[in-house]
Amino acid sequence: MATRALIGARSRATFRLPASRFLSIGPISRFASTLVIAEHEGGSIKAPSLSAVEAAKSLDKDNSISMLLAGSGPSLQEAAAYAASCHPSVSKVLVADSDRFMHPLAEPWARLIQLVQQRENFSHIVAASGSFGKNILPRAAALLDVSPVTDVIEISESTKFVRPIYAGNALCTVRYTGAHPCMLTIRSTSFQAQPDSTDSKAHKAPISQVDLSTFEEDTIGKSQYVKLTSQESERPDLGNARIVVTGGRGLKSAENFKMLREASRKAWCSRLVQNLLGATRAAVDAGFVPNDLQVGQTGKIVAPELYLAFGVSGAIQHLAGMRDSKVIVAVNKDADAPIFQQLLFKHPMLNWINEPHVADYGLVGDLFEVIPELLEKLPEKN
């Protein structure tokens, strides 16, 4: 098989645009106190919310972190008990127990955040930048009359943040100069939660019930929960996988995606290493795989230890969802595919700025020849 190897070492060096400034209407609190908006399911806190706690730790070394949970029934109480010991940095767990929060509708949740903020006067409010946080935080920010900073990937100071723009091709440094609370959504892949330790399991934060006697909900009738439709699967969430094997338009059919799935199971799947299949938007739109496998700007944001891309050209929108992967390996028959190239960006006030190659390792060749040969070289899993 005739192939040509391309090797590139990606640099994490980026450039900063001039800092954006928000309207200044008051100072941030001198001492940091942060409220983390937590999402829970089945009596456990979801991983992105734990990443939000990690992000809150970066705001201030003496930061007091509270976690807010809302819902009803035994599942909420189990989640509260889990939250109290899930992270040593959590100093308090606030629980709002009411049927009004059984479903994550933006209107009642935003009113709840406003109520808690008026009582506790937090300097920061943080949520993960997923569908849950993106749905709730902007409305809560409007009620509190502040401007949120979204999709933060790095926290330099308590009021200085870095966020991607232009589909991740540029990083913008933002300094918040508005009134408190400073409200953030953070990209969970940039703030990986640390595994539970003995100290965290011994830690128990106090749990307090939120007094809802003065809770005013003037949004009844504006939105209504109808139903939740989801595909049942034994696969873990794509965002938590340590290895992601992605196929693009180059696989040409759903049958060939089955080949890629079998290849990934044989080579890397084990109880110790979670390996999941991903896809580009072009493959999803073509009907090769369901849309819950989509990686990219309009799909899942992933940052696995190893990202394997077969038949992926490397469109900007796809790179925005996987460029933080630790090691990227690409196989494509087009030597000029963007995934093999240097990243270029042009700004009216700047010259061309280059980054090294997107892929750490690249192989130019026909994936229908590469995959069978790869499987021959790899041993069967134990």
List the keywords:
6-stranded mixed beta sheet; 382 residues; disordered N terminus; alpha/beta
Structure described in brief:
By secondary structure, the chain is α/β, with parallel strands linked by helices. It contains nine helices and 21 strands.
What is the percent of helical residues?
A: 10-25%
Order of SSEs, N→C?
A: EEEEEHEHEHEHEEEEEHEEHEHEHEEEEH
Count of DSSP H/I helices: 9
Round the mean pLDDT to the nearest integer and report it.
Answer: 81
Give me the Rg, rounded.
22 Å
| Poorly predicted spans | 1-29, 343-354
Percentage of β-strand residues: 25-35%
What order do the strands of the largest sheet run in, or round the barrel if closed? 9-13-8-3-6-7-14
Beginning-to-end CA distance, first to last residue: 29 Å
Report the count of strand segments: 21
Going by helix content, strand content and strand pairing, the class is alpha/beta
Shape: elongated
Protein name: Electron transfer flavoprotein subunit alpha
Subunit structure: Heterodimer of an alpha and a beta subunit.
InterPro entries: DHS-like_NAD/FAD-binding_dom, ETF_a/b_N, ETF_a/FixB, ETF_alpha_N, ETF_asu_C, ETF_asu_C_CS, Rossmann-like_a/b/a_fold
Cofactor: FAD
